[in-house]
Specification:
Helices cover 54% and strands 16% of the residues. The protein has a three-stranded antiparallel β-sheet. It is globular and about 65 Å long. Helix 1 packs across helix 2 and helix 5 crosses helix 6. Strand 1 and strand 2 form a beta hairpin. It is built from six helices and three strands. It has one domain: Sufe protein. Chain: A. The protein is of the alpha+beta class.
Length: 168
Amino acid sequence: MMYTDKVIEHFRHPHNQGKLPDYSAVGKVGNIVCGDVMWLYIKVDKDESGREVISDISWETFGCTAAIATSSMVSELAKGKTLEEAIAITNRDVADELGGLPPVKLHCSALAADALNEAIYNYLKKAGREIPEMLEKRHAHIAKEMESLEKRYAAFLQAQEAAKEKEG
C-alpha cells in the first residue's frame, strides 16, 4: 500500500493534534470495519463581520496512518472557515488535499469529514439553532453507525468477561 508524501508528512507531523481545552463542541465518530475512532474539537467565535467561524480546532484519533493523516488534514481545511464553509468540506476534499489515498483507506477521509460534521451538528444543537437538512441527514447516518459500533464493543467486552470467568 502506497501513501503519498503528504499523507506520510501529516502522519509523522500531525497538525492540531490533542484535545482543545476550551472547545465549543466535539464530534465523535468511529468505523466498525477498521476500529478507528476520532474525536474532533471545534472552537467557534465570531469574525469581524459577525460570522461564526471555526477559530480553533483539534483532534484525538485512535487509528492507522490514514486515519491520523486525514484527521490532521481536515483540521487544516476547517480552521478559519465559517460553519457553512466547514459543512461543505467533503471526504473527497480531504483525500484530494492529501494527494489521494489508497482505495482501501478512503473510508478514513469519510470518517474525518464525518467528525467535522458531527462537531458542527453538536455545536448547533447545543445552541438550539436550526440544523441544515443535509447536516441532519449526515448526523442520522453517523448516529446509526455509532450505535452499531457501541453494540459491537459491548458484545466484545461481554465475550472477554465470559472468557476470563471460564479461565478463572
